[in-house]
Specification:
This protein has 475 residues and is an alpha+beta fold. The protein contains 11 helices and 28 strands. The model has no long low-confidence stretch (mean pLDDT 95).
């Protein structure tokens, strides 16, 4: 029996193991220390997900390693002295909204899909890769190169897992990360994440129309579907005018804005469409809607008005940096991509978190120079992520081998290697390229409500990963 036949006999088990993982709420949370003093740096849920994966790997007969609860590893040893091949995924998931069809952590199979947070990003592809390793092993094939499945725990919010692995473990010589699209991702744009912040003068008295709070978004790398402002005034009759303005604005713009009295205040809410921050054109930014509406109000406070005006003048609904003076573009990867992921305005400070994807032939510093040139005198930048772009020629032998494995089991003979705006672990592991698991003909539901994976695609990707392992590590 060959390794593909072993995979086909494991299909129901693969589905069951993915469902186990999806039931675990592995959104990163605050560090937890157990009564015995053990630290879970990314919270209890993420730790539970790691323990479940390592338990599965061990039951399959592989070596497993837990590196200080920062990152896990499942190893299929090859011949001594040979190279190692890494499959680098992650078990943490992005936060969820409350309007899921079945619930984010309640895996349900319907119409050929499994629904649940992490099914597509990235628990499904990680489990697929593990079963691909198992199929090679069960078929009696001993790899020449050591195969390492590396499971990070904070990919959606940072890179501590990758940094820790580099410090304590032997890095793979080359590999893949099943955390993007098929076919091969031969390049990734650079990524900048930073805050634009402005201090505000705390009001000494409630005079006029006061903006007491604005909050929106869940993460820098997600297009926010909801944003909310709270307005206060001693002249309560003004609330009725704002309620009517919200109705007329919604009718004229087509955007969803509502205003409702709540106690002595007025709550204004904007609803957009969630999407991954690397493809903001697939969503609709609720923060941009709310800020455009707030710009129509006669608010008290010069600083907060300045911040809102800055947003509407230099960001608004632009997605390619036109008004931030960073509208760069190249043939390999296209245009700059801009997403405002979160906003927070209170009595003391206004901040917005911006995520920018930089074309592969440009340096990140050129983008920052453009943004800095449009800042107002009272605004500053708090720098965060600064990941450089990666790019490998489509004619590289590694890329060509991955394409062969993809074409063998996808049935797609037309697609070519692509460059993406998304950032993966390929940026933190040398010689690694993103490879799957979203197929070109599928809707991208990563980071979205009702995230799901096609069971047919789940089967295909597992065969592709098994073929990849065989071609690169066993032949």
């Amino acid at each position: 029996m060959n390794y593909i036949e072993y995979l086909e006999n494991s299909n129901s088990e693969m589905i069951e193991e993915l469902a186990k993982q999806v039931r675990i709420d592995s959104v990163k949370s605050e560090p937890v220390r157990t009564p015995e003093g053990e630290l879970y740096p990314f919270g209890k849920g993420v730790q539970e997900s790691l323990a479940e994966l390592l338990k599965l790997g061990e039951s399959m007969g592989f070596e497993v390693h837990n590196y200080d609860n920062y990152v896990g590893e499942i190893v299929f040893p090859g011949e001594p002295g040979e190279e190692s091949f890494g499959i680098v995924g992650h078990l943490d998931v992005v936060p969820v909204a409350d309007d899921w069809k079945h619930g984010p952590f309640n895996p349900v199979i319907e119409d050929g899909f499994m629904y649940g947070r992490g099914t597509a990003d990235d628990k499904g592809p990680v489990i697929a890769a593990l079963f691909a390793m198992k199929a090679i092993k069960d078929a009696g094939i001993t790899p020449k190169k050591t195969i390492k499945l590396i499971a990070g725990l904070d990919e959606e919010t940072g890179k501590e897992s990758a940094i820790h692995y580099r410090e304590v473990a032997a890095m793979p010589d080359f590999g893949i990360t099943p955390d993007a699209d098929f076919p091969v991702i031969n390049g990734e744009k650079g990524i900048l994440i930073f805050d634009i912040a402005q201090k505000l003068k705390k009001p000494t008295a409630k005079e006029g129309l006061m903006l007491s709070k604005v909050q929106g978004g869940l993460a820098a790398n997600a297009v926010p579907a909801h944003a909310r402002a709270v307005i206060a005034s001693d002249e309560r009759a003004r609330y009725d005018d704002i309620i009517e303005l919200a109705k007329s604005y919604s009718k004229e713009s087509g955007y969803d804005v509502t205003a409702k009295k709540t106690g002595t205040s007025l709550a204004v809410e904007a609803h957009g469409v969630a999407a991954h921050g690397s493809v903001p054109e697939k969503g609709l930014n609720a923060i941009s809607i709310l800020m455009e509406f707030l710009g129509k109000l006669d608010l008290s406070g010069d600083e907060v008005t300045e911040f809102i005006d800055f947003y509407n003048e230099h960001i608004g609904f632009d997605l390619n940096g036109e008004r931030l003076e960073c509208q760069f573009e190249d043939d390999q990867s296209g245009k700059v991509i801009v997403n405002v992921g979160t906003i927070d305005i209170n009595d003391e400070v206004a901040t917005m978190k911006i995520n920018i994807r930089v074309p592969v032939t440009y340096d990140n510093s050129a983008v920052m120079k453009g943004v800095e040139s449009v800042l107002g005198p009272n605004q500053g930048i708090v720098k965060g992520t600064d990941d450089k772009a990666i790019y490998v020629d489509p004619e590289d032998e590694f890329v060509k081998t991955l394409m062969e494995a993809y074409r063998d089991y996808s049935g797609d003979l037309d697609s070519e290697p692509v460059v993406i705006g998304g950032g993966t672990y390929a940026k933190h592991f040398d010689g690694v390229l993103a490879f799957g698991g979203l197929f070109p003909w599928e809707d991208d539901c990563m980071h979205m409500t009702d995230e799901r994976i096609s069971l047919d695609s789940y089967d295909k990707m597992t065969k592709i990963y098994a073929s990849t392992i065989y071609k690169l590590c066993c032949k």
